Amino acid sequence: MSEKHLQTGDDLPANSGKLRLFAMRFCPYAERSVLVLNAKKLEYDLVFINLDHKPEWIFNFSPKGTVPALEYEAGKGIFDSNIINVYLDEKYPDIPLQSSDPLRRAQDKMLVEQFAGAQSAYYTAAFNAQALQPDMVENYHKGLGILQKEIEFRGTKFLHGDEPGLVDFTIWPFLERFEALPLLGKAEFTIDKSKYKVLTNYMEAMRNVPAIKAYALAPDTHAKFTESRIKGDANYNMLDSSAVCCMRPRKKKE
């Protein structure tokens, strides 16, 4: 799989007949869908796009040009990670990732909603630090506290149970990125093991899940990408060695 991000003027790769996910390598929302595809052991192709210089054809699959977008049939797409992931879980039920209990599914959705404050604080801290307010740091730690309490209350290895499920794969991409914040000079966002023992144990278990292990990036990698984006020149291709020595000229529009 190439880590190169296609951009304006690049051709849409030929469809192989598999499911195809359009993503951005450093996007947490796209990662949610990658993890679900991995967990369900589905065959799929992954195409990365440059979100600053979007290829024209992405709008055929995602009207706003956002990722992730899933091409479920040739030329036909659905977008938004939550919509995609529920679709995948219902379409391919062999490895179910949601509870059969309607109440537990509702509780999972409420937990994700309660965690949203921590996600919002992360985005401000990472990409708009000058706008960071004390209450945002409080909301961040409040979100971590709610998550830790729920993990402890459920008493299972993962939120979904003995194996991770949709709720785990929805929350994880942000936990993965939270660990980059201290490397960006935001020590107040550190996930202290002495304070978050249950949560850090959960995070360690998640790191070892095959679906995650195959795609996760280290905190310093996330930090480097964030720094490049802050400078106004997001280095989308930092993981693609071919982009350095073998990058072809951009195709000119006719």
From TrEMBL:
Residues 17-96 form the GST N-terminal domain. One of its GO terms (biological process) is glutathione metabolic process. It holds the Pfam family GST_C_2. Keywords: Oxidoreductase. Gene3D superfamilies: 1.20.1050.10, Glutaredoxin. Residues 101-234 form the GST C-terminal domain. InterPro entries: Glutathione-S-Trfase_C-like (IPR010987), Glutathione-S-Trfase_C_sf (IPR036282), Glutathione_S-Trfase (IPR040079), Glutathione_S-Trfase_N (IPR004045), GST_omega (IPR005442), GST_Omega/HSP26 (IPR050983), Thioredoxin-like_sf (IPR036249). GO terms for molecular function: glutathione dehydrogenase (ascorbate) activity; glutathione transferase activity. GO terms for cellular component: cytoplasm. Belongs to the GST superfamily. Omega family. This is Uncharacterized protein. It comes from Euphydryas editha.
